[in-house]
């Protein structure tokens, strides 16, 4: 199976750095402004569900992870392998560097923190097993789920709609100590993005 590991100009001064296999339903990518392309130190593509770009800025290195966790219904072994790889790659980042993990993490972390310091208390819905897995990953790596840290209306929390089902499964995480770097986080409704791209 050929792997799709390339960069692609997507217009308006942006480039998409991609990772995935053409015959699968998974794949990840990171969009980078061309003005930062000379600041990219490295691109690491771990598998179809996880990649990382390292950017040098303001005398620090920023490690941007793009992740696509397995859905509810996939095998526990496959889920374990994904979270183990993400955990391993997160732990490899030097403590002085900044970590940003973003993606479809396919877990419901719930509306309230219920004692989890990584949860800001402003999530959506109820927690599930995959959400617990995400919370465990965040806490063990001293990360904060920043899109639970700001009070938002539901439309800026919900990232997946299917019929009457609404869930929050897309998340951004940063190191606890770098939480102040993030001044806001919200989901941009698809309709807004579609209009912007038209």
From TrEMBL:
Domain of life: Eukaryota
Gene3D superfamilies reported for this sequence: Endonuclease/exonuclease/phosphatase (3.60.10.10)
Annotated SUPFAM superfamilies: DNase I-like
InterPro entries hit by this protein: Endo/exonu/phosph_ase_sf, Swc5/CFDP1/2
Name under which the protein is recorded: Endo/exonuclease/phosphatase domain-containing protein
């Amino acid at each position: 199976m050929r792997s799709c590991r390339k960069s692609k100009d997507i217009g308006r001064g942006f480039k998409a750095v991609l990772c995935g296999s053409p015959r699968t339903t998974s794949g990840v990518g990171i969009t980078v402004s061309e003005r930062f392309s000379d600041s990219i130190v490295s691109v690491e593509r771990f598998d179809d569900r996880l990649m990382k770009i390292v950017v040098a800025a303001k005398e620090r290195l920023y490690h941007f992870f793009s992740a696509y966790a397995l859905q509810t219904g996939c095998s526990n072994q496959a889920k374990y392998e994904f979270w183990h790889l993400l955990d391993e790659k997160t732990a490899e980042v030097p403590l002085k560097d900044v970590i940003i993990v973003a993606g479809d993490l396919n877990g419901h972390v719930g509306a309230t923190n219920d004692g989890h310091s990584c949860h800001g208390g402003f999530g959506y819905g109820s927690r599930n097993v995959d959400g617990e897995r995400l919370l465990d990953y965040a806490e063990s790596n001293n990360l904060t789920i920043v899109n639970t840290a700001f009070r938002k209306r539901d439309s800026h929390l919900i990232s997946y709609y299917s019929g009457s089902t609404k869930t929050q499964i897309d998340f951004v995480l940063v190191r606890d100590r770098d939480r102040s770097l993030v001044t806001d986080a919200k989901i941009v409704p698809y309709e807004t993005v579609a209009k912007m791209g038209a």
